[in-house]
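agent> fetching stored inputs for the zinc ion docking request
agent> found them:
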Amino acid sequence: MKWLGRISTALLGLIVFVAGKKFFRDYELLVMSKYDIEEMQEEIRQMDSEPYMDLRGTPTHICVCGSDAFYLRATFKDFEIATYMLDMQCANCGSLATAPTPIDYKQD
Ligand SMILES: [Zn+2]
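agent> prediction call returned; pasting tokens
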């Protein structure tokens, strides 16, 4: 009966070795301290409360997310837009962007 115990131990060792090899091939282990996790959760909360990106600076018609609809402040006169502010926010992802103006139009 002693040989049966050795064979079963060898088989169990082989199974653990193969399973461990597959686990470390398919997954990566990341060890983090609780302080790092709390700090990362706080950063995620801050990102959720702010617009996703600040893309202001270069006038654009399309956001990086592909949307061409924006929220912006405008004034009206005679049923048309008379003035609009240059800061706008993407209606899809919430990123801040700069509204284009006729001066920005480049003719080739
Ligand atoms: Zn967007």
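agent> quick read of the result: The mean pLDDT is 90.
agent> awaiting further instructions
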